[in-house]
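To illustrate the input format used throughout this study, we show a single complete record. The first block contains the structure-token representation of the backbone; no residue identities are included at this stage. The design step must infer an amino acid for every position from geometry alone.
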């Protein structure tokens, strides 16, 4: 077979006007060969594909896939136990094709009973004031009642705080709450089973709902809330103007009131009217779950703790002890606890390097300067007066002054 380089050389020479006989002579080829390759396109050599070791196990993989096992790492370990000596990449590549099948396949719409399920999701809405802007959306699946809140974070504390606000807006909690596999809810998976975020699990136990997560690569599982986010982008977001995050959330809440009072396109009923039949789990009479940021600090000898670049005072009896600091998300309040007792409360300072002190925290400790705290001093300090010994030198001892005659008498006695 003619190599691709020789084929290109034949084409070039012939294009330059060289005869077929001359081309055959230069390339040491037969004239019939040269004429044949002048008539047809090149057919470069292609190496036959090497068979994959995974092919012998494809039927087993497909069977496990249909049973719901979609984790490639788990399938790889199972194949190794059955004698597979190939690589993990072949397993991952094989199941990747099947994941694409599931994205476009048809599915049956799933409707839940009243009070059975709510769906949660986040949407990204660009940047504002130097930070990303997110929309928290919670939807009651049966009534289609919506709640929207914009935030600048997606951490666990923000998520729980938004959920508390949504529960108050709905007047209760559904039996189950469905989310995707976000890190604030699921920290990982073991053998395909979710490992829950401990604080989110404690939050769920406090309010009495059961957390659920979607199967990986199955976004249609929570299609109702995803449709709500798309509707939020097209109905509320275009042309919205706001001065602050609070202003934006007031507009979002007004939008929720408006759309919750209109006929829903799917149910053909008004969500506010269907909501009356939801029969949610009541949260009345229960204190809100503490969604504060929690950290630990050690109070210094001058009765201060450091938090986010500023310093705050604590009672002098807790100097040198480790305390728990809780920052509320709604009120901008910093609360300080020792074990279970609240020992101090401050409003969060703005900026950096600010010292927030409360005079009552220092009790009867002696202080010369009322602006800054002093260390714990048990005895009053002697007031210094100008003179020798003030500064870096030791103070000159005070001595009694006597007449010189007294020393002469003593000297006379000593001589006798």
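Output of the design step:
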């Amino acid at each position: 077979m003619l190599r691709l380089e020789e084929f290109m050389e034949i084409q070039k020479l012939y294009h330059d006007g060289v005869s077929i006989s001359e081309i055959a002579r230069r390339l040491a080829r037969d004239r019939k060969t040269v004429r044949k390759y002048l008539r047809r396109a090149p057919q470069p050599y292609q190496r036959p594909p090497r068979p994959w070791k995974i092919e012998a196990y494809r039927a087993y993989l497909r069977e496990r896939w249909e049973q719901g096992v979609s984790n490639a790492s788990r399938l790889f370990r199972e194949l190794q136990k059955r004698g597979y000596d190939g690589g993990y990449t072949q397993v991952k590549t094989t199941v990747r094709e099947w994941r694409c099948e599931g994205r476009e396949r048809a599915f049956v719409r799933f409707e839940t009973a009243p009070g059975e399920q709510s769906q949660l999701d986040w949407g990204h809405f660009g940047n504002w004031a130097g930070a990303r802007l997110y929309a928290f959306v919670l939807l009651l699946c049966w009534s289609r009642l919506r709640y929207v809140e914009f935030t600048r974070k997606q951490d666990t504390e923000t998520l729980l705080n938004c959920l508390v606000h949504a529960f108050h807006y709905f007047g209760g909690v559904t039996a189950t709450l469905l989310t995707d596999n976000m890190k604030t809810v699921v920290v990982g998976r073991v053998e395909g089973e979710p490992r829950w975020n401990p604080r989110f699990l404690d939050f769920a136990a406090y309010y009495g709902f059961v957390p659920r997560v979607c199967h990986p690569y199955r976004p249609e599982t929570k299609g109702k809330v995803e449709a709500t986010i798309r509707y939020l982008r097209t109905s509320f977001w275009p042309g919205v103007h706001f001065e602050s995050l609070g202003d934006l959330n007031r507009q979002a809440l007004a939008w929720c009131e408006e759309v919750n009072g209109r006929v829903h396109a799917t149910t053909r009923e008004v969500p506010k009217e269907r909501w009356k039949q939801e029969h949610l789990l009541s949260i009345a009479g229960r204190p809100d779950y503490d969604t504060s940021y929690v950290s630990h600090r050690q109070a210094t000898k001058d009765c201060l703790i450091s938090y986010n670049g500023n310093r705050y005072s604590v009672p002098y009896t807790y100097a040198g002890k480790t305390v728990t600091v809780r920052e509320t998300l709604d009120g901008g309040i910093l609360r300080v606890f020792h074990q279970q007792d609240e020992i101090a409360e401050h409003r969060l300072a703005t900026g950096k390097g600010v010292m927030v002190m409360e005079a009552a925290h220092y009790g009867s400790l002696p202080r010369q300067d009322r602006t800054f705290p002093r260390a714990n001093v048990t005895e009053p300090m002697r007031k210094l007066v100008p003179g020798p010994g003030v500064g870096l030198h030791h103070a000159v001892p005070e001595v009694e002054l006597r007449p010189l005659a007294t020393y002469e008498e003593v000297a006379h006695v000593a001589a006798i």
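Structural context for interpreting the output: The chain has four domains: 4-39, 53-104, 117-275, 292-396. The chain has a mean pLDDT of 83.
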